[in-house]
Amino acid sequence: MTSDPIVRCADALVQILESEGVEFIFGHPGEQILPLYDALRKSKIKHVLMRHEQGAAHAADAYARASGKFGVCVASGGPGALNLTMGVATAYKDSVPLLVITGDVSTELQGQNVFQEIDISRIFSFLTLKTFNIKEPEQGILNFKKAIEMLKNGKKGPIHLNFPRDVLNRGVEPSLINENVSFYPETDIRDLESAISLMENSKRPLILAGAGIIWSNAVDKLLKFLKEHEIPLTTTYPARGVVPEDHPLSLGMLGLRGTDAANFAGKNCDVLLILGSRLSERTRVGIGNCEIVQVNLDENVLKGDLNIQEDVGEFLEKISHLKLKSTEKWLFEIQKHSKSYDIDTDYNDIPIKPQQAIKEILDAAEDSLIVNDAGTHTTWVTLLKMVREPSSLIFSGGFGPMGYAVPATIGASLARPDKSVVAIVGDGGFQMTSQELATIAQLDLPVVICILNNSSLRIIKQWQELYYGGTYQVELENPDFVELAKSYHLYARRVNSPGDVYRALREALKLSRPYLIEVVVDREEGIPLPDWEG
């Protein structure tokens, strides 16, 4: 009787990904990762060839946000691995589950300062929940399976595995592929009964929902809980839409750019229940003197008066029996405050005002997925967008890198082929990752890129004017964006007038093809800045 033949480590990794239902991997090949690419060549998994590794990480990040699954990105050693770091850091700050795979020089060469060698795992240790520096193929397979279990069942964020090229080429026993590797996250619910008592005695309770609600698949549980207990709700930016923002109990976003209703409730509630949020400094701006109950799987973010380390969905099930006091009077007080922003978007100016352009884009986009970049336009989207569906407004809030939107549209579009995707990006951010137009064109994705062109880094220019007495190095001499897009085989056009932005986007969406719209906007129009920003 013969034993099963030895299987190459790289092939085993791909078989594990196939068994997990992974459909897409975003990456860029290089010398040290070639064994894995050889295995992918024979796989049903679709590798998406990005034009830069940063784009691969951003695309995998947006795929995860739009699908609710973990994203996968891959790069070679040295320069390829380091090019991933921007996107991995972005996912880390927003707690987005990514499986990050890098190649490395062979084990016998490590420590000798050879070509493209660098301590990859040490670098990624600052950007991930966990990094595995693989030395043996058997160790690599088991850690790979553990990483996947951690992504599915634990706190969310990137997990990194670094594979030397010789390890990828070495063989393992096939039985390892089906080895049972389990992971159970640590929990601590000692404060549960105290939290229940605190909430039941509250006269002015408020819920702050974070993106943990989405990753826990607890959106329906949250809606049911709100309906049964009549508690008002605010959200963080990544959680916008977990409850439709036109829902009677939804007050909109809390904090720096929060609505009047949300920030009034945050300043005047007596108990704040925080579900799946790390409670950033921008959110804390909207919170007053209250008792805080914080629920999160990540023990590192728990800083409330009462802390519950647990999946938010499981927590909602445990408190479904709550017997709360009537919130009728509390809700009446909140209703005196606006849930929307007072932004004038009715101008006749040419070039069009940026806020009016954003309003026309959002109106024309209807139920498309919106992917936002970093810049002045980001604030206008925040203030003008009514979000009614979770994961329908995708934005890298915690890190906010310029250049996120264009590659992110690729991941979002592949995750949601039933949706058109509209990116909103400034002329500065667009040029950070514009090479990914080639990827969009090659895949023929129904993506529309809307560039707001004010020929400057407008938000930085505004800060310089306000706080530094003059501007420096913020004016941009831009290329012809329309001709650039056409060189990548995209449809493209330029608009600058009220009404034309709406019409251009409606026509572009009807085509269901890659399209770029350059919107020339007023170069001097800034945004309303919060008092402490800058």
Could you describe the 3D structure shown?
- The structure is a single chain.
- With 534 residues, this protein is α/β, with parallel strands linked by helices.
- The chain folds into three domains: 7-178, Thiamin diphosphate (ThDP)-binding fold, Pyr/PP domains (Rossmann fold); 192-334, TPP-binding domain (Rossmann fold, 3-Layer(aba) Sandwich); 354-520, Thiamin diphosphate (ThDP)-binding fold, Pyr/PP domains (Rossmann fold, 3-Layer(aba) Sandwich).
- The strands form four sheets. Strands 3-2-4-5-7-6 form a six-stranded parallel sheet, sandwiched between helices. A six-stranded parallel sheet has the order 11-10-9-12-13-14, sandwiched between helices. A six-stranded parallel sheet has the order 16-15-17-18-20-19, sandwiched between helices.
- The chain starts with 6 loop residues before the first strand and ends in a 14-residue tail after the last strand.
Mean pLDDT: 95
- Main β-sheet: number of strands, strand sense, barrel status? 6 strands, parallel
Physical arrangement of strands within the biggest beta sheet: 3-2-4-5-7-6
Helix-residue proportion: 25-40%
The first-level CATH class of the largest domain is given as: Alpha Beta
- Counting DSSP E segments of at least 2 residues, the number of strands comes to 20
